[in-house]
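Retro notes
What went well: the complex prediction finally ran end to end.
Inputs used:
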Amino acid sequence: MIFQVDFQAGKPVYLQLADQIRHAAASGRLRPGDALPSLRPLAEELRINRNTIAKAYAELEAQGVIETLPGKGCFLKDNHSALTQQARQRLLLTEIDEAVVMAHQLRVDREKFLALVAERLDYFESKASAAGEGAKK
Amino acid sequence: MIFQVDFQAGKPVYLQLADQIRHAAASGRLRPGDALPSLRPLAEELRINRNTIAKAYAELEAQGVIETLPGKGCFLKDNHSALTQQARQRLLLTEIDEAVVMAHQLRVDREKFLALVAERLDYFESKASAAGEGAKK
Amino acid sequence: MIFQVDFQAGKPVYLQLADQIRHAAASGRLRPGDALPSLRPLAEELRINRNTIAKAYAELEAQGVIETLPGKGCFLKDNHSALTQQARQRLLLTEIDEAVVMAHQLRVDREKFLALVAERLDYFESKASAAGEGAKK
Amino acid sequence: MIFQVDFQAGKPVYLQLADQIRHAAASGRLRPGDALPSLRPLAEELRINRNTIAKAYAELEAQGVIETLPGKGCFLKDNHSALTQQARQRLLLTEIDEAVVMAHQLRVDREKFLALVAERLDYFESKASAAGEGAKK
DNA sequence: GTGGTCTAGACCACA
DNA sequence: GTGGTCTAGACCACG
């Protein structure tokens, strides 16, 4: 379980971490119930302050992605997403629109764009199912 | 040409403006060569500081989306995107991945997700062609 | 003798315990000389760590509320309060001021506030005298 | 407008500040609409970090006591207390109980306690009405 | 050992 | 000039 942070990226380090954990959850690298790395060891490994990681975890907990048991650790939740169907769709549409606008700005046409989307869906799904196989052993 | 800003959104006002102009460009509401609203009238209409608008325009100019002709105004550029094919694709993949991860997190399945993407592509394309018709008149 | 702890309360468990013991002493549910519950049984009943209870007792002992006889247990002291008259009054005024400020903030008027104070005094006194009756049997 | 902080008090500095501001509001030294001291000047005066004051203000804003206008400053709100009658009474009872328990522990009897409460009510009311007179001039 | 809080310094967004 | 954010270090609460 190795995460990477880029100090030059402009994006806050704690958000980089939170995104990587979300990606790990989506790709099955992290599965519900799994423990996340403890603050201190991970901070040492990434050479950042413990609080920066704590902030990333706090962000994820506020969004219901993980749960933290003080004195025990942080664990990936069995994510049921308490939001309504409508609210979830609104969140998702925002993300989709950003990708669509970026595609237009970069002059990527509809065909190419849909192909890229399908490719990324395949990518995440294959990693998730591979992780599922791995867990069965 | 009406923009809207939300002071409660947490997102900086100048970025809200820049995003809306990018969206307007993607949907054809603004076309290459079009003039953007002048600082003073727009600032008055939106009840924000002229500096905030100037900052949004500066942001867009730095990204090559618009160009500023001192004493004339700001105009939407014929967007060539100086980035290489590879760099453009990398940027776009990041956006697509965020949408895919969000879909996973919200438990939106592949079918539904692709349908939403197609819907948004249609939406932007229809607005762009409608704007094109309008421009012919 | 049943105490209750709330893990969601934000307040440290050991302080919740200590406060409840102080309340029990004020209301007469615990009387000078009474033994407090032993560590192990209480820890089991409340499903918390023995150290947490030990810490609550240590806190109370440091304040002179109870005394620990190694190998015997913990007992409620005949509370003499070693503080000077002046120091005691200062402590009490701080508590009173906080209640008064809160009343102002919540727009509770003088009449209502004094009525509430009298009500709470009655409540604690009635519990204390009832406990006194019980002890005589 | 001078506040004082005590680094030896055990109580977090930002809470000391928040309490003092609440007291100032209850005693009329600060009135609805009044501006609170700006972060930087006050931090310099009290020799503490700007963030510590910001945290005190954030606490008060979360409780609806003040409102902060970024770029403008922080202002005492016209406190209407959105809580229900029942919720307010519960908050207030907690404060009152703490004072009553402290009185018992310090062996202050009912008469003396009620006298002290009345004295503090008088004190705050006299300061508030004096401040009201001052404002009329 | 675990996570949480308080304080701080540097930098950013905004008017 | 205003307040806000990000990162950090030291210390605390808890098991």
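What we learned: Helices of chain C lie at 13-26, 39-46, 50-62, 85-105, 110-136.
What to try next: split runs per interface for comparison.
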